[in-house]
Amino acid sequence: MKFDAVVIGAGAGGCHAAARLAAAGQHVLMIDDHAWLGGRAGTEMIDGHRVNMGAIALEPGGVFEETFALCGARLDIREPKPAAVFYLDHKVVDISKGGLGFLLGGLTKQASKVLDQFAQARSGSLPDGRESTEDWLKRYTSHASVHAIFRNLCAAIFAMNADEIPARAFLTYFTQKGAFKRFGFHPEGTMGAWQALADAVVRLGGEVWLSSPAEKIEVRDGRVTAVHIRRDGGDLLRVEAGVVICNGGPGSAVALAGAEALGADYLHQSRTVLKPAANIVYNFATREDIMPAPGIMTFGKTTHGRLCNIANLTATCPELAPAGWHQYVAYAVPRPAIADFNSEAEIAMGLEDLRAQFPGFDQKAKMLSIRVMRDDWPAQRSGAGYDMEVSTPVGGLWCVGDAVKTYGNGGTQACAESAKRVVDQVLGEAA
């Protein structure tokens, strides 16, 4: 069995890579060891609810939307208005018109100093990569609520605490990248987007195998030659391909191709450069609408400083829940997020934060799922500012996804961009 390319992993980066290759006329096979598409951005059915496992926000425009247009896939994103607000002392602060300056100006007299740093960052003047966002912010303000807001922005976007992400990466994202200026939700759950891309791959002559893990990437004379795949629990198949794209991160590439093939330096980078981040996802539903905003609401100070934001999914996508139910997803980021932590204790603190923000929470909420994204199921395979290159020392072997994103980037747009970079180089080599 032979394909032009095998994409290992059907997460955001893998789906974009497979769709772009198929659109360019390549014979593509995309596989995943799970029974669903989207990886941690997949969707499951629980008690009649379409429940997103992790990531929920899809960013229209840019490379993300370009992929759908290239392969003729339908993209259904509903954008809430306002998309993002802050929730400070149980009051909604809408910054859709006044921006961050409006928010900070209402909290501290030092707002102009912080905003000046954003202006300098836009012109290319950035801190070095060693100073954390927390330490950078301390130079301009000690206001507790401001620090809580910045911590929760870091947590919500990067699944990292403010003392874990470099200020350079944080400022790069907010001044030079997407910064979630536009985002929305999918009425079929986030998996609806990945299903559209997978359907396009098949329509364009490719194949998609789920529940089919790769067990080995075969390398000869410094180039990939084949992937050994256990298809749907059956026989081990050897699939020939001159291009293999890993969506599981450089660590996955090392595990499948072998340290000897990739070399000591690449192995060392995969163990020291990458810093997988973690978060905790609370999916729940209520009979009455408890959230005073239709999109994503970022918190300020919370009881334990774990809860960072919450999304009101059914305000724009009522199809996600059975009739009469409102559905939400809240996120908490543990301390630390890029090192070991006590999962049970962190889950409990996140729940206590929710109870404090929404009085009567236990009586009103039906908990659908609580997922701890960590270790082999990370929130991010590497946090912003700690990425490797998309290329590897093995010819024809590439990585896509959130361990090889460009500096300071994040979200599904970053995964889509990594796929574009890889596919452009693959097609360039084939030309």
From TrEMBL:
SUPFAM superfamilies: FAD/NAD(P)-binding domain. It comes from the Bacteria. Gene3D superfamilies: 3.90.660.50, FAD/NAD(P)-binding domain (3.50.50.60). InterPro entries: FAD/NAD-bd_sf (IPR036188). Belongs to the carotenoid/retinoid oxidoreductase family. This is Amine oxidase. It comes from Falsigemmobacter faecalis.
